[in-house]
Amino acid sequence: xxxxxxxxxxxxxxxxxxxxxxxxxxxxxxxxxxxxxxxxxxxxxxxxxxxxxxxxxxxxxxxxxxxxxxxxxxxxxxxxxxxxxxxxxxxxxxxxxxxxxxxxxxxxxxxxxxxxxxxxxxxxxxxxxxxxxxxxxxxxxxxxxxxxxxxxxxxxxxxxxxxxxxxxxxxxxxxxxxxxxxxxxxxxxxxxxxxxxxxxxxxxxxx
Length: 207
Prior knowledge:
Elements: E1 4-8, E2 12-19, E3 22-29, H1 37-60, E4 68-72, E5 77-81, E6 86-87, H2 88-91, H3 97-116, E7 119-120, E8 129-132, E9 135-138, E10 145-146, H4 150-167, H5 175-185, H6 191-205
Antiparallel strand pairs: 1-2, 2-3, 3-5, 4-5, 6-8, 7-10, 8-9
Helix pairs in contact: 3-5, 4-6
């Protein structure tokens, strides 16, 4: 099949394709002509490998993520399951309040599962989560890392807070349900992480 581009950014393009008779999603990291070729190849290979590892580790942490079918380090391609659900961004404002509240709590629980294993997603927005079979699936770990610091976990949650405030401004108060879900699942003391969010907000005000 001809590839159908789903998203094209500065770092990668994401498109529908076929793999062993399955319809799949491929994430292909784009070569940068301004970088020395050998350095560019090494960087693409490293980032592809790290993202694939994070997705696998997220699954191990109990978080729903796409199944990975193939990783091509040389060409910087991850071939993975096409999750045929709905992006939370597209349904967040259309669903009943109780369902929105539940989804927010589920999001918080899943972020806590990641953070319990020190997995930082790096770009938690309602565009990077899909509802499929009544479960929240996380996609796009391209900016992720392993990091045990409270700062990194606070930043991860703060990114989502800002995403909800900017994209779903009429429902920004629902972020509190994300924190409720997080608090119920996080194995360490969640208060330092929440305090870090407040600290990040204050930093932004005084810049």
